[in-house]
Write a structure and sequence with these properties.
about 60% helix, about 0% strand, mainly alpha
Length: about 140
């Protein structure tokens, strides 16, 4: 019994001592810092750091299974690159129609005879002459 009483007294004394230490301990009232993003990324493998596609490589038939996988992957990448190039270099139907409409006039002028071209130029000049000439309009006087 005495031992348990002594043990309880020791526990109480230690708790009081801990409270006293905690009360005396200085604490700064600063806002908690936000957790900054780490500047470093931990990767479990070297393949991502070195931008390797496969963890293993094989050359000259050393590991045929890996070489098959490499060929399949390379073929898929080439197809994706070709599709991307085609999208970048292709033109839309509207652009094609605009270009075609501009070319029709140019080519039609090329194949007309010189006489018809000169007649067309004269007709345009006559049309400009038949329009009413622009005259100076006197401003109204406000008096």
């Amino acid at each position: 019994m005495q031992r348990s009483v002594l043990q309880q007294e020791l526990d109480q004394n230690q708790e009081e001592l801990q409270r006293a230490i905690d009360d005396e301990h200085w604490v700064r009232d600063l806002p908690q810092h936000l957790k900054r993003d780490d500047r470093y990324i931990l990767q479990p493998s070297v393949t991502q750091c070195e931008h390797l596609v496969f963890g293993r490589l094989s050359f000259k038939g050393f590991n045929p299974d890996v070489e098959k996988l490499m060929k399949i992957h390379d073929h898929e990448e080439e197809l994706l690159a070709a599709c991307q190039r085609e999208k970048e270099q292709s033109i839309t139907e509207r652009e094609m129609a605009k270009r075609y409409s501009a070319l029709v006039g140019i080519i039609s002028k090329k194949f007309t005879s010189k006489k018809r071209r000169s007649d067309a130029v004269k007709d345009e000049e006559d049309a400009e002459m038949t329009r009413a000439p622009k005259m100076f309009l006197k401003p109204e006087e406000n008096s």
